[in-house]
Amino acid sequence: xxxxxxxxxxxxxxxxxxxxxxxxxxxxxxxxxxxxxxxxxxxxxxxxxxxxxxxxxxxxxxxxxxxxxxxxxxxxxxxxxxxxxxxxxxxxxxxxxxxxxxxxxxxxxxxxxxxxxxxxxxxxxxxxxxxxxxxxxxxxxxxxxxxxxxxxxxxxxxxxxxxxxxxxxxxxxxxxxxxxxxxxxxxxxxxxxxxxxxxxxxxxxxxxxxxxxxxxxxxxxxxxxxxxxxxxxxxxxxxxxxxxxxxxxxxxxxxx
Length: 256
Description:
It is a single chain. By secondary structure, the chain is α/β, with parallel strands linked by helices. The protein is built from nine helices and eight strands. The strands form two sheets. The protein has a four-stranded parallel beta sheet with strand order 2-1-3-4, with helices on both faces. Strands 6-5-7-8 form a four-stranded parallel beta sheet, with helices on both faces. Helix 4 (100-111) crosses helix 8. The termini are far apart.
């Protein structure tokens, strides 16, 4: 049996919130022998809307998965389109580490020449602009569009379908008008809308969470992982330092 650790980027998320994330697995066919575990970060950002929050997200996600290989996991998935901690985790782990932003954009380019990012909230636009520049794909993105609704990081889209889904569809149609051949959902928190949108749009919809699960499964089966030529191992790893920082941060958050 293979094991995948999914890092949930919300600090101390409760069982209901984790279950809403885990529901992504229902929309993809995976090997029944693949064991998928979900682990919220100990401490981190509130909204992911700024460089400040992205730094905290990197630390939180790195700490949550830095010992995954020692724990017997065969791959790590980062459950956020910020790809938080992705590069740092690749530098200390030999098992595959998959981030949904890079995976979504590159998969979109397997399916078309240009893609758009469809998201809920304008303050998240910086997430995509940052990663598109970092991955050298800014010129392949037709547009980034949002519906102006702050996300519910615990309940996701549950209970709001009648309001949110039509708004997402309207913006997705504008993405197609912008020249997008493929739509990338801008958050794993939007996974509940993927199938509904795919049935109503003339272009493919990339659902980032399930995509990363399938890619992790494929990497394990193919015995592939990231290149040490690209992701050097640190001469002096300081995973325990990061753990101490996050333990202290979690205690501080609980006290305040």
